[in-house]
Amino acid sequence: MFDYNTIQDLPKSLPLFQRFHFQSEFATRLDQFVLHYKGDMISSIRVKFPLGNEHRDAIDRLISKGIAKGAKRIELLFSSETNDTTHSILPYKFSLTLLSDNDSLTYLHLQNCLVLEPMNLSGLKNLRTLVFHLVDVKQKLLQSLSSNCSHLLDFTLDDCHFTSSLIINIPTLLRLNIVNCRVNIERYIDIIASNLSSFEYSCNDRFRVHPINIKSHMLSKFIYRGARFSKPIGFFGLKNVTTIVLDGLTENLSGNILNNLFSDCFKLENATFKNCCLTSSTDITSQKLRHLSIIDCGFGEYSPYAITIDALNLLSFEYSGQNTHIIYVTAPKLLKIFWNAAVREKIPHPFGPIESLPHIENLAMIIYPSQVEKLKQVLFQFQNLRQLELFVEGGVYDLDMNYFWILDIITASQHLQKISITIRNRHLKNSRMVEFKREKRKYAEFSHNDLKYVEFCGCVFSADVIELASQLLRNANSLNKMTFSSLHKFYIGAGRWTSGSDGCLLGQNVIYEMLKDEVNKQCQLIIL
């Protein structure tokens, strides 16, 4: 790898008056590297710096030497980043003839450069992965890929400009990504790939998308982010999909889209709808569906009037949005639910249909502190609960309302095996920091035989938490692991996670000293 990270005194962003100096310095060092490299092999080449076509000779020499020494991976990640918006760098002009007579290259990533004609792709006959980012894509280039890249499996077009309509006819292709694309003109995209299994499309236009015709009978995973879906895409090419994600639709999802989706895509097992317009009553009926996510759908601040789900084989359900109590779920095999009850502080029906589903085994929820007492009442019904994950959302949390409601839930759920509590709170009120000498309190003893894993994450430093941990260590007879972590990473639906830390965890030694006498041989105490 040779990029700006290998040269500490070269900046990532170039002021105009320094730009040419730093570019020349980088190009000179690049040439010196090529000249003095004595190794027998070069496995990969990576250039990442605001170089332009004026330094083409140095870049060409690096590529030629890498190819001669058997490079399998080439990444040319050029940028025009400067602090001056009135001047730009003429993009590097990449000649594919540099790769001719090569049979080692399996990965090629081009960013912000021009691909020159003639498009000789004979050196890409063993290419497996190809990524174009900020590249002008011509149909002639795609035709050359089809003719020469007989082993291409992964193809990505990221924020590329299409000079014409595209026909992607690559029989070997397994995964295709056309993402962040610009829709200056609604050029059509034809995809003819007999082995294609995964296709992702997204555009950065609020109103338009590319009309797409999919002829790939093996397609099983389809991810789509765009304003319109039904007319530009249709359902003909999606008959065999098992996983679908629709994101950002401004046309009403409640109408023909859902009806056709579950009637025409008869193999559909996993469906995710994010940020979609959902304004009227919605019916989802499917015998095949196993996993369903409805995340932040509605219209502005309005939730769909009613959602009816009838899915005989549904195993997991995720919901986040403007909650409505008119959600009917008929799913006898449903075992796992993620539910965000913290969209608004005051909401009439924060737990939706959860109260009517006491047979579930795995429950993850985001809640406000004010919802704790209501949640406790609801969870007393859950006799089959095996795993419970709670994310207590921010706001002022009066910690004098201690954490011992958790013991009530554990006691009621005699089959519970794992509980995870994450507290995110930057503004603490009436809280008392734990001192090195822990205050002793007396709470009712309890006993639990199945609990194996306990996690405390985020702001977990009150006296109540330490006392609660002590109770669990003494009286959870099968406890194998207890973890403390300041990180508040938590699942928030549709494959998304929170990240970061509140930075409010006590030191490792402090918590260890408080709890070390309670830890037995079978249990691990982990403090991250």
Q: What is the end-to-end distance?
A: 33 Å
**How would you describe the shape?**
globular
Please tally the β strands and state the result: 33
Sheet with the most strands, sense and barrel status = 19 strands, parallel
Radius of gyration: 28 Å
Strand percent estimate: 25-35%
Runs in which pLDDT lies below 50 for 5 or more consecutive residues are 1-17, 82-86, 395-401, 426-440
CATH architecture of the domain at 360-528: Alpha-Beta Horseshoe
The level 1 CATH classification of the domain at 360-528 is: Alpha Beta
Classify the secondary structure makeup into a structural class: alpha/beta
| Helical fraction | 10-25%
Q: Number of helical runs?
A: 8
CATH superfamily of the domain at 360-528: Ribonuclease Inhibitor
- Average pLDDT score: 82
Notable characteristics:
single chain, 528 residues, alpha/beta, Leucine-rich repeat, LRR (right-handed beta-alpha superhelix), 19-stranded parallel beta sheet, three-stranded parallel beta sheet, 33 strands, globular, disordered N terminus
